[in-house]
Amino acid sequence: VQVAESGGGLVQAGGSVRLSCAASGSTLGINGMGWYRQAPGKERELVAGIAVGDGSTSYADSVKGRFTISRDNVKNTMFLQMNNLKPEDTAVYYCKFRRWYGLQTDYWGKGTLVTVSS
After folding, report:
1. At residue 19, what are phi and psi to the nearest 5 degrees?
2. Hey, how many other C-beta atoms are within 10 angstroms of the C-beta on 91?
3. Per residue in 56-69, is it b (16+ CB within 10 Å) or e — as a string?
4. Are 95 and 81 spatial neighbours (Cβ–Cβ below 8 Å)?
5. CA distances (Å), origin 49, targets 9, 11, 66
6. Cα 2 → chain centroid
7. How far are the Cα atoms of 21, 28, 85, 102, 106 from residue 74, in angstroms, in the given order?
8. Could you tell me which residues come within 8 angstroms of residue 61 by beta carbon, excluding any fewer than 6 positions away?
9. Distance (Å, whole) CA 15 – CA 72
10. Which segments of the chain does DSSP mark as H helices, in order?
11. Which single residue of 16, 78, 79, 96 could bond 33 by disulfide (Cβ 3.0 to 4.6 Å)?
12. CA angle, 51 then 58 then 81, to 5°
């Protein structure tokens, strides 16, 4: 499975950014998608997740009401719409696909930097 992210960049506080992430190759069995982020000097944390089957979502408390995760199952693509961004949202954002095909495997994107200026 190959993973390609797009989006990110520099945005002012209060602004919006949309991230995209697409999986290609052996995508049969993908059952979960998620976005993580890692700020300088901090550990990587889960931002939002979505189930492929029923579309159920979960969010970190710090982004609830501001970020929205969505997916296109046909295209094996996920999105993260980030609104009302704050300087503390500055981080490298990573997407992850979880696949079950005999065994569970996670596939990560390379990360995209989002910088929010105050």
Report:
1. -105, 145
2. 21
3. ebebeeebeeebbb
4. no
5. 22, 23, 14
6. 15
7. 13, 11, 29, 22, 19
8. none
9. 24
10. none
11. 78
12. 90
Distance between CA atoms of 2 and 84, rounded to whole angstroms? Answer: 31
Residues 6+ apart with CB under 8 A from 65: none
pLDDT on residue 87: 97
DSSP conformational letter for 87: G
Distance CA 6, CA 19 (A): 6
Tens digit of pLDDT for each residue in 9-68?
999 999 999 999 999 999 999 999 999 999 999 999 999 999 999 999 999 999 999 999
58 CB-near residues (< 8 Å, 6+ apart): 46, 48, 49, 50
